[in-house]
Specification:
44% of the residues lie in helices and 16% in strands. The chain has helices spanning 2-10, 32-44, 83-99, 119-131, 135-144, 146-150; strands at residues 18-21, 24-27, 64-65, 72-78, 103-109.
């Protein structure tokens, strides 16, 4: 988790959610149309492909969904206690549903502990779930019940 946070800071992630689509930064809980525009450009070699600033974000051992050789890689830096990250979840699910094998999605931890005091523990718990092969189920459950457990501070 510390390496995810350090990597995010290296690429000037200063809020969540932050997405990199083939290295192109998309900040905040953007609508599906914004993701679609960029993903379609990446798939078709659109005019902005060569000129947009990009960074090479390494997947490392991040949990992923999708084919490992997909032409588009979406990496999210996220915080389980962040309400904006929760709002982005349906958009990511729509991206995965509509683009299927064309997109690989990776999750990176970026808990904003200054404003979300339970985010670090939630991230740690998600890694325990991952050790049991249940990361994505736990990920979805954390977001589905976010208001309940976030109030336990």
């Amino acid at each position: 988790m510390d390496s995810d946070t350090a990597q995010g800071a290296q690429y000037v992630v200063n809020g969540t959610p932050a997405f990199f689509i083939n290295g192109r930064l998309v900040s905040g809980a953007q609508p599906f149309s914004e993701f679609k525009k960029i993903i379609d450009e990446e798939l078709t070699g659109g005019q902005n492909k060569a000129t947009d600033p990009r960074v090479k974000v390494e997947l490392g051992n991040a949990p992923t969904q999708g084919k490992s050789d997909a032409p588009v890689v979406v990496i999210e830096f996220s915080d389980f206690q962040c309400p904006f990250c929760n709002r982005a979840l349906p958009t990511i699910k729509q991206v995965l549903s509509e683009y299927k094998d064309k997109v690989l999605f990776a999750y990176k931890h970026f808990p904003l502990t200054q404003i979300h005091p339970l985010a670090q523990k939630a991230a740690e718990a998600s890694e325990c779930a991952r050790d049991q092969g249940k990361f994505w189920e736990f990920h979805d459950q954390l977001f589905a019940t976010q208001q309940e457990w976030s109030s336990l501070q």
